[in-house]
Recover the amino acids of this structure.
């Protein structure tokens, strides 16, 4: 595709040579001739003078000297768009050859119970097990080694990568993506202490519900409820290595980064953004549009929408920064205090 064709496809404005051919995409510091890159973060502006890319996506709102984009001596052209990063992702998808990692049809080694129901064009890889009473929707693809338990319901257009396990009775919506090694519906961590110091298992009788358009990364664990439901709401995006305990609810369009853990009965609001390695204590509630920075330790509910938190225990960011600034001042304050003690002692000596 030419620069002009890409600009037209993105509803962008070309500054420079619109006839250059583009075959690949790359990062701005690594791009070569024939490649497209983007500039969304100002700290990468320093690469504009050295990039070998043929075209750079930039924001319509960015204040840049684009005149050199018309330079005929090898300088890149520019395409001005509303969001360079989103535009880059669209071009990446357009120009990157597609590889379908899923098998075709139903592999002969797949085990399908007689009472299971498969929709149209379902794909089952090698050694997939579909247990009694399970229902799988149209166009869903289940790769090698997956286990679909008794009475599980999976909607249409889902993608389950190798070795995903969905325990009995759990319900998966439509267009859900689940990556390798993830377990949906394992028992919640419920143990009652006994007088002799041992523990008695608390029955885990609920289920997990994963609503439509959810994406779940590799090696995540989402525990079934003790009673009732553990719920992952519509549009949630989970990174790899996330633990969601029994009876939790994760609100619509929330995104959670890797190694985050939710203890039992935690309720996360809509549109939360949760960084990596955040830990939530149980039986708490988070407001809509909350942001938790990486490694925050959340020990209480936060009910005011739209706030940002950090630290351990987690605090609102401005308050946390004030505390941090005060802590940095402690050595100097301690020296001043010692000097004041000496001066007070000297005054007392003079008054004797």
């Amino acid at each position: 595709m030419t620069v002009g064709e890409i600009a037209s496809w993105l509803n962008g404005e070309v500054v420079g040579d619109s006839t250059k051919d583009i075959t690949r995409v790359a990062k701005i510091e690594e791009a070569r001739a024939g490649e497209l890159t983007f500039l969304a973060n100002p700290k990468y502006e320093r690469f504009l003078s050295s990039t070998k890319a043929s075209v750079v996506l930039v924001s319509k709102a960015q204040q840049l000297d684009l005149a050199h984009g018309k330079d005929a001596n090898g300088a890149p052209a520019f395409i001005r768009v509303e969001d360079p990063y989103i535009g880059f992702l669209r071009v990446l998808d357009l120009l990157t050859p597609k590889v379908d990692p899923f098998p075709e049809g139903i592999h002969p080694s797949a085990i399908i119970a007689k009472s299971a129901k498969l929709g149209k064009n379902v794909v089952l890889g090698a050694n997939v097990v579909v247990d009694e009473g399970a229902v799988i929707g149209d166009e869903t693809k289940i790769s090698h080694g997956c286990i679909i338990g008794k009475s599980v319901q999976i909607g249409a257009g889902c993608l389950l990568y190798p070795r995903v396990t969905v325990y009995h009775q759990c319900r998966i919506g439509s267009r859900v993506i689940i990556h390798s090694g993830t377990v949906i519906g394992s028992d919640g961590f419920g143990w009652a202490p006994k007088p002799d110091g041992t523990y008695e298992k608390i029955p885990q009788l609920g289920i997990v519900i994963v609503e439509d358009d959810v994406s779940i990364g590799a090696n995540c664990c989402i525990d079934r409820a003790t009673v009732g439901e553990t719920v992952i709401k519509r549009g949630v995006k989970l990174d790899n290595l996330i633990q969601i305990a029994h009876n939790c609810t994760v609100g619509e369009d929330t995104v959670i980064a890797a190694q985050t853990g939710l203890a039992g009965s935690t309720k996360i609001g809509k549109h939360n953004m949760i960084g990596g390695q955040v830990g939530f204590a149980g039986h708490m509630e988070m407001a809509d549009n909350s942001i938790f920075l990486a490694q925050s330790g959340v020990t209480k509910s936060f009910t005011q929408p739209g706030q940002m938190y950090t630290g351990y225990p987690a605090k609102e960011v401005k308050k946390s920064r004030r505390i941090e600034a005060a802590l940095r001042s402690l050595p100097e304050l301690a020296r001043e205090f010692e000097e004041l003690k000496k001066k007070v002692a000297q005054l007392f000596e003079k008054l004797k």
Notes: The longest strand covers residues 55-59. DSSP finds three helices and 36 strands in the chain. The helical segments are 3-10, 84-95, 317-351.
